[in-house]
Amino acid sequence: MHLSKNKEKIYYSLKQKSKRDENKLFIVEGVKICRELIQTDLFIEELLSTSKNIDIFPDATLISEKQANRISNLKSNSGVFAIVRIPNKKYKINEENIIFCLDNISNPGNLGSIIRTLDWFGYTQVICSDTCVDVYNPKTIMASMASVFRIQTHYLDLYKFINEKKENRTIIGANLDGNSIYNSKIPDNSIIIFGNESRGISQEILSLCHNNIKIPGKGKAESLNLSNSVAIIMAEIFRIKINI
User: Fold this and answer.
1) What distance lies between CA 18 and its chain's CA centroid?
2) Is the distance from CB of 44 to CB of 37 less than 8 angstroms?
3) pLDDT digits 0-9 by tens, 194-230
4) Residue 220 and residue 101 in contact, taking contact as beta carbons nearer than 8 Å
5) At the fourth CATH level, which superfamily is domain 99-242?
6) Which of 2, 99, 163, 170 has the highest local Cβ count within 10 Å?
7) What is the pLDDT of residues 116-139, one digit of tens each?
8) CB burial of residue 67 (10 Å; 0-12, 13-18, 19+)
9) Superfamily of domain covering 5-85
């Protein structure tokens, strides 16, 4: 079975969020991540493979190198793709643990790396502002290394959500003007917010924070990469918890 021109056009267009929303589909690329995808309950519309991987995915539709290069988001395509149906199921936010929120994150690789870090430390969800990059962006999927299949990503009006929670939860902003994470208490009912890569947390959301935390440094770098900052703070929270 070969890929039709019409399907090729649709699959190629899925690099754009508007087309993902329109077709209710997203792309997963790579042998390892496609293998993990098959073990989930996500609906796979179609598997695609070039001749170099067809033995690994014998049920896949055979595509040419030219078609793979058009569909791929990489300079050198991986040779295998899954076209996946975007789930329409809405998950309930888990209120039993620390909640991590992202305010206007724009880099898809950062979002994917953050999702992978959440998965590593045993969290199951992340809350994104409506202005955050799309979780189904191909770069986000790839950077998450399949963790995106296990982490529930909620998109909502972040200001409204935090404003509703501020009376019963401790709202903490990750901010360069904050107190050292190593001298701060992080209650189990905390909501921790990370802001945009260049602008940080928006002022309206920052105004809702009860306190702020930062990662102290000694060198001359202006700041840390966002996903690295998230990983360091999560690691410190994890260290404190296992030592209780």
Assistant:
1) 18
2) yes
3) 999 999 999 999 999 999 999 999 999 988 999 999 9
4) no
5) SPOUT methyltransferase, trefoil knot domain (3.40.1280.10)
6) 99
7) 999 999 999 999 999 999 999 999
8) buried
9) Ribosomal protein L30/S12 (3.30.1330.30)
Distance CA 73, CA 77 (A): 7
Q: Give Cα 148 distance to the centre of its chain.
A: 6
In angstroms, the CA 115 to CA 197 distance is: 16
135: left (phi over 0), alpha (psi -120 to 50) or beta: alpha
> How far is 167 from 90, CA to CA, in rounded Å?
25
Model-level pTM greater than 0.90?
yes
CB 154 within 8 A of CB 128: yes
Distance between CA 12 and CA 68 in Å, rounded?
9
The tokens of 189 are what?
A: 């009912």
* Residue that the structure tokens 């929670």 belong to: 165
